[in-house]
Amino acid sequence: xxxxxxxxxxxxxxxxxxxxxxxxxxxxxxxxxxxxxxxxxxxxxxxxxxxxxxxxxxxxxxxxxxxxxxxxxxxxxxxxxxxxxxxxxxxxxxxxxxxxxxxxxxxxxxxxxxxxxxxxxxxxxxxxxxxxxxxxxxxxxxxxxxxxxxxxxxxxxxxxxxxxxxxxxxxxxxxxxxxxxxxxxxxxxxxxxxxxxxxxxxxxxxxxxxxxxxxxxxxxxxxxxxxxxxxxxxxxxxxxxxxxxxxxxxxxxxxxxxxxxxxxxxxxxxxxxxxxxxxxxxxxxxxxxxxxxxxxxxxxxxxxxxxxxxxxxxxxxxxxxxxxxxxxxxxxxxxxxxxxxxxxxxxxxxxxxxxxxxxxxxxxxxxxxxxxxxxxxxxxxxxxxxxxxxxxxxxx
Length: 396
What we know:
By secondary structure, this protein is an alpha/beta fold.
């Protein structure tokens, strides 16, 4: 069998093989519109047909609790595991997060009920067309006007305007963040430090209205996965705690309530070696013609020097095409990665080249992104481990 010469390149991954999120039928962006439509909020459509309406609805979002990770750790989460058959209205199937599968994008999709191409948070860090700088959409740095960046109303605002009791119960540190304002505002905000306090207050807020929409959130499982990995004792300990929190809330549901436990993304552990962590900052081929490197390790937005777009696309495909789905901006849009439509204001925020990991690999940037480059657990792409999230249901 002949060996490949130095000038031969294997065929890159075909873009149509990327497993697209189920926008419009079973993605995170479809969850709150479906639930709020069941509460009688006008202008919203129930696009997840498996879900049944309830008068009082609570969404518990556990950051980083992927479908595959939950199924792989049944012993640490006996309560949540017992609910796997209830997922997505009793079908036993997961939802998809949306692309990229990362917190800022997913929370915006949940809160607005819109896919990334419309709400306009299409990655961890993307170019601000007005300034030419990268804007970190999780930390909101450098600061930009939140309402100009994401102008659509949230589902909570629409619910409140329709007379539904809307409330958010989470850590007090999130009360005034721009991400909360553009994605989750509407109704009352209740900051509580401990997970137990959040679960108890979420149940109280559910009972506070004849029609209620309550959102509560827990982030520490994701943090443990990033720092130590999803196979670590720390992550498993956090999962055990999360399992108890979910059961605590479920046992306090007032009458006519439905609790949905979901997540914003899953996670994969990536080994610390040069084969699995490709360093953009030391790779002259990948850097050639690139003005800005956005996104994150498994979901990159690449912004080319004007005129170099095609060259950058060619090189990235040749170097990474066996391990990443590598698309031009227009190819990614046409393939539906960011949803069925991309708003005009969002178009220039997307990379000239978009790279989504297929294998357990990262494009790190050790010099410009030292913290992100050191994470054990990572997410962002369209693989099942990252995309699939549960939608576990308890009804009273």
